[in-house]
Task: inverse folding
């Protein structure tokens, strides 16, 4: 029908169409990977994390990762709640 031809080996809307192949994207991915490795290496010291009913000792990067994950989940939950309120009005 009226579809544009694709390169051989790729399907329209397939995974290969969504993979960034530009040099800039690869550089950004490399810098992000390096940053993550440095973050892990620089935050290996053990710290005590106090929860409401207990405490535990973990590497600092795990405590930071847990705090970031909790923040993301709370943010997503609030955004979802806000979007549901707007759709009702």
Result:
């Amino acid at each position: 029908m009226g579809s544009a031809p694709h390169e051989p080996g790729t399907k329209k809307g397939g995974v290969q169409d969504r993979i960034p192949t530009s040099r800039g994207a690869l550089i950004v991915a490399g810098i992000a990977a390096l940053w993550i490795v440095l973050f892990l290496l620089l935050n290996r010291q053990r710290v005590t994390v106090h929860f409401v009913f207990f405490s535990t000792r973990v590497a600092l990067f795990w405590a930071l990762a847990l705090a970031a994950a909790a923040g993301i989940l709370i943010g997503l939950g609030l955004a979802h709640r806000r979007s549901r309120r707007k759709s009702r009005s």
In short: The chain is about 60% helix and 10% strand. Strands lie at 46-50, 55-59. The first helix runs from residue 15 to 18. The chain has a mean pLDDT of 82.
